[in-house]
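Hey, I was hoping to borrow your eyes for a little while. I've been staring at a protein lately and its backbone has me curious. You're getting the sequence in one-letter code plus the fold written as tokens. Would you mind checking whether the tokens look sensible for this chain? Here's the protein in full, and shout if anything looks odd to you:
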Amino acid sequence: MNDIKPEALSAHSAIDIHTHIVPFDFPTAAGRSAPAQWPQMMAGQTCQHRNVMIDGKVFRTVTEEAWSVERRLEHMAVSGIGRQVLSPMPELLSYWLPTEDASVLCRHVNDAIAGMVAQCPQHFNALGCVPMQDPALAARELERLMAMRTFRGVELGTNINGTAIGDPKFEEFFAAAEALGASLFVHPLHPSGMDRLVGPPTLVQLVAFPSETALSVASLITGDVLERHPMLRIAISHGGGGFALTLPRLAFGWAHISQKPGARSPLEQARSLFYDTLVYDTATLRHLVGVFGKTQLCIGTDHPFVIQDPRPLLHIDELNLNESDKLLLMGGNARRFLGEPVGLS
């Protein structure tokens, strides 16, 4: 880190709420987990790469930016990002493991994140993971994480072993998150519709993720999660996926078919959520600003994976916003999502 100039990573500059980490290594498989279920790390072709192994196969080859603070700071200096919010690679959320084993893996991943933040707290924030297959345990683990004061909240998958996050079974967890003031970052995981994909494996991220994300956001509204817990701070990855185009249909149905007296409209509820800017296109981003509001968009890149947006500030510049609105997207909205005092520069 000696060659990184502090002014290149100003704590007052852009905040990226969508970045992931992978620990350098994993503990030995715990408890009742089958060895194939438990992630492992193996050496890659170079010392800068390692292979994440799942089910005995290479799931993903990651660079050292996945665990190295120094390498991340170098990338941030080039890309114009002053602060990253670190969250687990979604496939480490461990919902499919036995609960006790998932708790072991989650704590290992959370410890890795906390260690990275401790090295450079002015440039990193932490979102951890909890075993959502047991909502009561997840609520207690969230309480533990928040008490550490290192974590701002946790990352959630769009579904928990096939059950949408808007399902009533997760009520205890969302009640705890609201009470604790935790930030929740929703990321697609094991999407539905996989049997409909025709083409290469990358279509999972390119096609299935947006649909999966839209379903999860809709479930938070139709499952009344946002009505029961209006103070929740939830950010949706990948610009909400396809939800911006689904929302008018949902709003029409609410207004003309199934309006609930006293309830907020789907549009009002959708505008209480935050969304990242990871849509790769200025026109699409401009549409999201129009649908969700200039106060609800935050930078997201998916660093350090191949799918990341390499120029995260370009599309914001191309929106030609006035300076105050631009500052909202650059970092002001992210600070609100993270629960920081309004007006903090």
Notes: The longest strand covers residues 14-21. Confidence is low (pLDDT under 50) at residues 1-11.
